[in-house]
Amino acid sequence: MTVPPPIALLAELTHRCPLACPYCSNPLQLVRKDHELSTSVWLDVFQQAAQLGVLQLHLSGGEPAARPDLVELMQGARDAGLYTNLITSGIGLTPRRIGQLEDAGLDHIQLSLQGTNADLADWVGGYKGGFDRKMQVAAEIKARGIPLTVNAVMHRHNLDDLDRTIEMAQELGARRLEVACVQFHGWATKNRGMLLPTREQTAETKRKVAEAAQRLQGILAIDFVPPDYYAEYPKACMGGWGSAGVNVTPEGKVLPCHAAETIPHLQFETVKDRPLGDIWYKSAAFNAYRGTEWLPNPCKSCDRKEIDFGGCRCQALALAGDANATDPVCSRAPGRAAVDAVLAAAHAGDNNEFTYRIAAPPK
Questions:
Q1: pLDDT in tens, 180-203
Q2: For the whole model, what pTM was predicted?
Q3: Three-state SS annotation for the chain
């Protein structure tokens, strides 16, 4: 098959983060600060990405503001000709630093939102005072006219507040709102019973998103990421494994998706050992699930195989125990019963407390 170049690079600069979110999507084994890529290596990665054909650079974490060299990295991304998007909780950004980032070439900010008030947001994020700090940062972004996307991570405890979430996105001056329901990988699986919305909540959210998207057309673009477990068909992982986006971890591993390291039979190479382009086109891990030739039955003969490519490989591993299987969220999957069992257990369990991404819950 002909492999196109990637469009986007997700640069996970660090796993350090002030928040303790119970749905944290970073790996269970976090990369330590002393194992993070140096400034010079990241700058070289950005140049390689641009030469490979990447257009968009997403600077993420953890919290990318934890990197003291963030302004220098932003300038390097601009020098490479990349469109830059800073994915942040807002913690660690001051007006002065935002100004420096803007001067260095910042194009866009994606700000996470854990709730529409301090009590809810600070409880979910596990960081007292986080909501107020976030609102100060949002006000600074709006005053400067920097394009803003609000990423509202939604779950059982805040989906019923969706109307206010949409209002708040408009008040903050956002151009786009991501209504992103928690996806259950890594740490989030420890809190599945607390986070998984009901089927009724999910259906009502779909209705409200559709209505708001039409009503606010031209004012606020709204993207909806529904909970996979209630879907009839799976999503195409990253638009298709190794087809559009590439991730680089804090220590330099190159991945086709955020959770790919959970697949034990794949070996992922690093930018310290091999050029980014070689890894993208030639590595065994990136070619393992590209296209449709590898698909199992019933995917191989399915009329949707060019749409969802068998679904998420990491989800197939987590729920069916086999990364080569059809994603069990698919209604046609032989392993669909595993999803039904998870749903039943999540709704029947003790769902009173979060397990935060720290040793003990915040007081």
A1: 999 998 899 999 999 999 999 999
A2: 0.95
A3: CCCCCCCEEEEECCCCCCCCCCCCCCCCCCCCHHHCCCHHHHHHHHHHHHHHCCCEEEEECCCHHHCCCHHHHHHHHHHCCCEEEEEECCCCCCHHHHHHHHHHCCCEEEEEECCCCHHHHHHHHCCCCHHHHHHHHHHHHHHHCCCEEEEEEECCCCHHHHHHHHHHHHHCCCCEEEEEECCCCHHHHHHHHHHCCCHHHHHHHHHHHHHHHHHCCCCCEEEEECCHHHCCCCCCHHHCCCCCEEEECCCCEEECCCCHHHCCCCCCCECCCCCHHHHHHHCHHHHCCCCCCCCCCCHHHCCCHHHHCCCCHHHHHHHHCCCCCCCCCCCCCCCHHHHHHHHHHHHHCCCCCCCCCCCCCCC
